[in-house]
Design a protein that fits this description.
The structure is a single chain. The chain has 28 helices and 35 strands. The chain has about 900 residues and is an alpha/beta fold. The strands form nine sheets. It has a seven-stranded mixed sheet with strand order 14-13-24-23-22-15-16, with helices on both faces. α21 links the parallel β22 and β23. α8 crosses α23, α9 packs parallel to α23 and α10 packs parallel to α18. The termini are far apart. The mean pLDDT is about 95. The chain binds iron/sulfur cluster (2 copies) and FE2/S2 (inorganic) cluster. One iron/sulfur cluster binds next to α4.
C-alpha cells in the first residue's frame, strides 16, 4: 500500500490506482464525470481537479486531475484547497451552460450523477444569460430514449458502447464547436448492452424507454434485491415497484457476477410481469374462480392420490422442492427435455468430479487465453460475452506494463496496445458476435466442433485420446489453440448446452482437464440454458420421458406442472398424448401458455418480483431474490400454493412450512448439496428489519386514500428481513439483502461507491451468493475415450441446428413489449450454396419437415453456416418443442419434401 496525504491526513491507498479511485475508496466526496471504474481514466471532463503538493513545504502546489494522477507513495493532495474548489465550480458551470436545467421533467431527475455533482460542487445559479445550444434527438429503438440537450460531453457513452461493449453504431460526431453523441441516423441501437447507457451516462441523455411507459421516481419505488431470470448467469438486479406494478429493473453490483452491467434482455425483459397474458386469478376449467374454491379443488385432487409432479428449470429451488416433497421423490420429474437434463447433468458431473473449476464471471474477465467451444455466448449468456470482451485485453496489458503505463490510464493503454489481443479461439456452428475479437474462428457441425476440442486436448496432453482422420489444417489449428492456452496464466474453456451435443461438452472438459494435468490453473465455464437449470439438476429429478412412460402404463390421477410450458419441452403430439393420460392437470404459472390452456386448474404463481426464492447459476452459485411487493390479486409463490393445497388435503409435512426459512431449512436437511442454502441471505432474526422503501418515499398515506384516508398497516413479510415500509433498523443491510444503493449526496446508481471496500472491488460484507459446487479433490476423472465421427453432409436431409437470439429465444422476456418488437420472425437459415441447390432465395418461403412436424418459414441466407447444415431460431413461437439438432427435409412451398441429395 502507498501512504498518501489528503488534506494533511495520512491515508493508505492502492499504488496501482489513481488518486480519484483512492479518494473515493477512502470515502471522500470528489466530483467526477468521465471516469468510470470499469472504463478507466481519460481526463476529459476536468471535474476531479485537486491541488497536488511536491512535499510538506510546498504551499503553492499545482492543479492536477485526480483521475489522471497515480496514487504513488508520498503523494500530497488537497481536495478542499480554495483554488481546486473554484476550479471545479468553474468546470461544472461551463458544463451546465447549455444544459436545459429540465430536471423536473427529466427521467433521470432524483438519481442523476450530474445533479449530485452539481450540488457537491456548490454550483447553484446560472450566470450565462445567452441562448443555449440545442440538438435534435434520435429514435434509438424501443429500449433507450435520447435527449441530447442534456449532454455534458464526458464521452462515457461512446467509450462504453464502442470500446467496452464492441458496438459500432453509436459515435461522437463533431462539427465546429458542437459534438453530438448518437447514431449516424435514427435507428435501433444494435448492441446487446445498450441499456447500460442509461446508467453509464451521468445525466439524462440516455434513459430507459420502457420505464417511460409507467414512470416513477427512484424515491417513489419500493425496491428489492433480485436475480435476473432470463438466462443462466444470475446477474444481480434491483427491481422497483409503485402502485402494485413493476416499473423497472436496474443493475445491482456484484463484483463476482455482473459487476456494473446488465444485458438488454435482463434489463428490459421484466415487462413480461405486466403482460396482458398474466395469470392473476385461479382458473377452473378456463373460468376465473375464487382462491377458496381453487384450493378446495386442489385439496380434493391431492386427496385422490396418484399425483405426479413436473418441476421447472425456471422455477426457484423452493418451488421445485415443495413440489418434490408434495408428490414424493419418485413421482417428481425434471421439467427439461430429456436431452437438456442429460446435458445439464453431464456439465454438473464434470464440474463436480473433474479437476477444472467453474469460474465466477469476474474470473472469466481475468482469463488471458480463452477457447469457446460450441457456444454463441452473446446470445445465450450475454454478460459473459461482455466479460470475454475484456478478457482479450489481459495479455496485451503486458505491453502497457513494460511501458510503465498503469492499467487505469485507458487511452494511453489503448494507444500502446493498438489492435493487440490475447488469444480468444471460437469454434461454433455459425458466426458469433464475438468473432470480431477472436484470434481463431472455426465453424462446423457440432460433431466436428467436438473433434476439434478433443484434438486440442490431445495436443496439450498426448495421453488424451487422439482424433482419427483429422485434416492437417485442423490438426494445425488444434496445435495453435493448445499452445495459446498453454501460454496463458489463466486459461479458460467455455462451452455449454447450446449445440445440444454431449460430445461438445465432453471435449471442452477434456481440454480443461488436459490443461490442469499440464499444471495450468484452467477454468471451465459452462453456460446453462435457464436461470435455475443447475439448481433443478442438483435435485436429480427423473427424466421427463419417464413421466410420459409412467402415465402411458398407468394413467395418473393428477399431474401438477410447476412454472413450465411442456409444449416447449417436447413435440406437441407427445405432450398432447401425455395430457390425455392424466385425469386432472394442475398448472402453476405466471403467463398463459399452451399448457395452462389445457389445464383443469391454473394457479397464479408469483414471478421473481412477487416471490422469494433461490436460483443456482452457471457457476454453481446459489443466490436469493426477494419479493418487491404484495400483488393486489391472488398471485402468490408457487411453494405457498403447494403448501396451502396440501393443507387443504390434510397432508401434514408441507402444511407445516410457515415461512421461506422453514422451507429452506427442510431443503438443507434433506438434500446434502443444499446444506448451505439457509445462509444465502441472513434471516430477519439475525439482522432485524430492512426497509424496501427509501426514506424519501412519497404519498404513502395518500396512495390508498380512495379506499381509506387512514394509512393502512403495511403487509408483514414472514419470509425475509425486508419490510414493505420505510422503517428500518439502523445500520447498512448486508449485500445479499440490500434493496438499493443510496448514500447521502449520492442519489444515482454510482452510490455503489459507498458500499465497496475498494471502488470496483467486492462489496463490503462480501458479494452475494454461496458456491455449491467445487471440483473434486480426488482426481478421479478419466479422459473421455469416445470421439465422434466427422460430420458428413447427408443425402437425405439437412442437419438443423438451433440459432440463438438474445431477443426471442428466452421464454419469459419475449412477452415484454420492447423485447417482442426486436425478436426475429421464425425463419430457416441456409448457406447460399445450399439455397441455390434448392432454387430458393432470401425471403422466400420454404417448407421444413422435422419428424412429424412441418413448418412454412422464410429463408434467411447465412454464408457462415457449414454445408449440409441449416439453422432454426431457438425457442421462437411456432418452432418450439422440436428437439434439435435433427435431420430435416426442405422443399419449396407447394413441392414435396426433398432429400438433400435430390436437391
Ligand atoms: S451522452 Fe451522456 S455519457 Fe455521452 S457524452 Fe453526453 S453526458 Fe457523457
Ligand atoms: S446476462 Fe443473463 S442473467 Fe445477466 S442480465 Fe442478461 S439475461 Fe439476465
Ligand atoms: S473524472 Fe477526472 S477528468 Fe473527468
Amino acid at each position: 500500500m502507498a501512504s498518501i496525504y489528503i488534506d494533511n491526513e495520512a491515508r493508505q491507498a492502492n499504488p496501482k490506482q489513481n488518486l480519484l479511485h483512492a479518494c473515493l475508496s477512502l470515502g471522500y466526496d470528489l466530483p467526477y464525470f468521465c471516469w468510470h471504474p470499469a472504463l478507466g481514466s481519460v481526463g476529459a471532463c476536468r471535474q476531479c481537479a485537486v491541488k497536488q503538493f511536491r512535499n510538506e513545504q510546498d504551499t503553492t502546489g499545482k492543479l492536477v486531475m485526480a483521475c489522471m494522477t497515480p496514487a504513488a507513495d508520498g503523494t500530497r493532495i488537497s481536495i478542499t484547497d480554495p483554488e481546486a474548489v473554484v476550479f471545479r465550480a468553474a468546470v461544472i458551470q461551463s458544463l451546465m451552460q447549455n444544459h436545459p436545467h429540465d430536471c423536473p421533467v427529466c427521467d433521470e431527475g432524483g438519481e442523476c450523477h450530474l445533479q449530485d455533482m452539481t450540488v457537491m460542487t456548490g454550483h447553484r445559479s446560472r450566470t450565462y444569460s445567452f441562448g443555449k445550444r440545442t440538438f435534435r434527438n434520435q429514435y434509438l429503438g424501443p429500449l433507450v430514449n435520447h435527449e441530447m440537450n442534456r449532454c455534458i460531453q464526458c464521452q462515457r457513452c461512446v467509450r462504453f458502447y464502442r470500446e467496452y461493449a464492441g458496438g459500432s453504431d453509436l459515435n461522437a460526431f463533431h462539427l465546429r464547436d458542437t459534438i453530438y453523441f448518437g447514431r449516424h441516423e435514427d435507428g435501433v441501437l444494435e448492441n446487446e448492452f445498450s441499456g447500460n447507457l442509461v446508467e453509464v451516462c451521468p445525466t439524462g441523455v440516455f434513459t430507459d424507454a420502457t420505464l417511460k411507459r409507467h414512470y416513477a421516481r427512484k424515491w417513489d419505488l419500493q425496491m428489492a434485491p433480485s436475480i435476473c431470470v432470463h438466462c443462466g448467469l444470475g446477474c444481480n438486479t434491483t427491481v422497483g415497484e409503485r402502485y402494485g406494478s413493476l416499473r423497472r429493473v436496474v443493475n445491482r453490483y456484484n463484483h463476482q457476477v455482473n459487476g456494473y452491467f446488465l444485458c438488454d434482455r435482463g434489463r428490459f425483459g421484466y415487462e413480461f410481469v405486466e403482460s396482458d397474458l398474466r395469470v392473476r386469478y385461479p382458473l377452473l376449467n378456463g373460468k376465473t374462480t375464487t382462491k377458496g374454491e381453487a384450493l378446495e379443488r386442489f385439496g380434493a385432487l391431492l386427496r385422490e392420490g396418484n399425483v405426479l409432479g413436473i418441476g421447472s428449470p425456471r422455477a426457484s429451488l423452493e418451488g421445485n422442492f415443495a413440489l418434490r416433497t408434495l408428490v414424493g421423490r419418485n413421482h417428481f420429474f425434471g421439467g427439461m427435455s430429456d436431452q437438456e437434463l442429460q446435458l445439464t447433468s453431464t456439465m454438473l458431473r464434470i464440474l463436480r468430479e473433474g479437476s477444472a473449476r467453474s469460474p465466477s464471471l469476474d474470473e472469466v474477465e481475468q482469463s488471458d487465453a480463452v477457447f469457446v467451444l460450441g457456444e454463441d455466448v452473446t446470445n445465450v449468456a450475454p454478460i459473459m460475452a461482455l466479460r470475454l470482451r475484456q478478457s482479450v485485453r489481459q495479455a496485451p496489458m503486458e505491453i502497457a506494463a513494460k511501458l510503465h503505463i498503469p492499467e487505469w490510464l485507458d487511452q494511453a493503454v489503448r494507444e500502446a496496445v493498438q489492435e493487440a489481443k490475447g488469444p480468444l479461439c471460437i469454434a461454433s456452428p455459425y458466426a458469433t458476435k464475438l468473432d470480431d475479437i477472436a484470434t481463431v474462428t472455426y465453424r462446423a457441425a457440432p460433431d466436428d466442433l467436438a473433434r476439434l476440442g478433443f484434438a486440442v486436448a490431445h495436443a496439450i496432453d498426448a495421453s488424451a485420446p487422439e482424433v482419427p482422420g483429422l485434416l492437417p489444417e485442423l490438426e494445425k489449428m488444434a496445435a495453435d489453440i493448445a499452445s495459446a492456452l498453454l501460454g496463458g496464466k489463466n486459461p479458460l474453456v467455455v462451452s455449454g448446452a447450446s449445440c445440444r451435443n454431449r460430445s461438445v461438452i465432453e471435449a471442452a472438459a477434456q481440454v480443461a482437464w488436459a490443461l490442469c494435468k499440464a499444471g495450468r490453473p484452467a477454468a471451465l465455464s459452462f453456460t446453462t440454458p435457464e436461470c435455475n437449470s443447475f439448481g433443478l439438476a442438483l435435485m436429480e429429478p427423473r427424466p421427463l420421458s419417464e413421466a410420459f412412460r409412467a402415465i402411458e402404463s398407468a394413467p395418473a390421477s393428477t399431474l401438477i406442472v410447476l412454472e413450465n410450458d411442456l409444449f416447449r419441452r417436447a413435440p406437441a403430439s407427445v405432450v398432447a398424448s401425455l395430457l390425455r393420460g392424466v385425469r386432472h392437470l394442475v398448472v402453476l404459472d405466471h403467463i398463459e401458455n399452451a399448457t395452462t390452456e389445457t389445464a383443469e386448474l391454473v394457479l397464479p404463481a408469483g414471478t421473481f418480483v412477487e416471490s422469494d426464492g433461490t436460483l443456482v447459476n452457471n457457476e454453481g452459485r446459489a443466490q436469493r431474490f426477494f419479493q418487491a411487493f404484495v400483488p393486489g390479486s391472488d398471485v402468490e409463490e408457487s411453494w405457498r400454493w403447494l403448501r396451502e393445497g396440501s393443507a387443504a388435503a390434510d397432508l401434514k409435512v408441507e402444511s407445516e412450512w410457515r415461512s421461506l426459512d422453514d422451507l429452506t431449512s427442510a431443503m438443507a436437511a434433506e438434500i446434502v448439496v443444499f446444506a448451505s442454502i439457509p445462509q444465502v441471505a441472513p434471516s430477519q432474526k439475525a439482522i432485524g428489519k430492512i426497509a424496501r422503501e427509501p426514506n424519501r418515499y412519497s404519498g404513502r398515506t395518500a396512495m390508498l386514500a380512495n379506499i381509506s384516508v387512514h394509512e393502512s398497516k403495511p403487509p408483514d413479510d414472514p419470509d425475509s428481513a425486508l419490510a414493505f415500509s420505510m422503517e428500518s433498523d439502523p445500520g447498512k443491510p448486508p449485500p445479499s439483502l440490500n434493496p438499493f444503493f443510496w448514500a447521502p449526496g449520492w442519489n444515482s446508481i454510482q452510490a455503489v461507491n459507498k458500499f465497496q471496500n475498494e471502488i470496483g472491488g467486492p462489496l463490503r460484507g462480501g458479494d452475494p451468493g454461496i458456491r455449491l459446487i467445487e471440483p473434486s479433490s480426488t482426481q478421479s476423472w478419466q479422459y473421455y475415450s469416445v470421439v465422434p465421427e466427422a460430420f458428413r453432409p447427408q443425402q437425405d436431409g439437412w442437419l438443423l441446428v438451433p440459432i440463438f437470439h438474445i431477443f426471442g429465444s428466452e421464454e419469459l422476456s419475449r412477452h415484454a413489449q420492447g423485447i417482442a418488437q426486436l425478436a426475429p420472425r421464425p425463419y430457416l437459415a441456409l448457406n447460399p450454396m445450399e439455397a441455390s441447390l434448392l432454387g430458393v432465395k432470401a425471403d422466400e418461403q420454404i417448407k421444413v419437415t422435422v419428424g412429424d412436424s412441418q413448418f412454412e418459414l422464410e429463408v434467411v441466407l447465412r454464408a457462415d453456416l457449414p454445408r449440409g447444415v441449416a439453422g432454426l431460431p431457438s425457442g421462437l413461437l411456432m418452432i418450439e418443442g422440436i428437439t434439435l439438432p435433427a435431420f430435416g427435409k426442405l422443399a419449396l412451398t407447394g413441392a414435396a419434401p426433398s432429400a438433400r441429395g435430390a436437391a
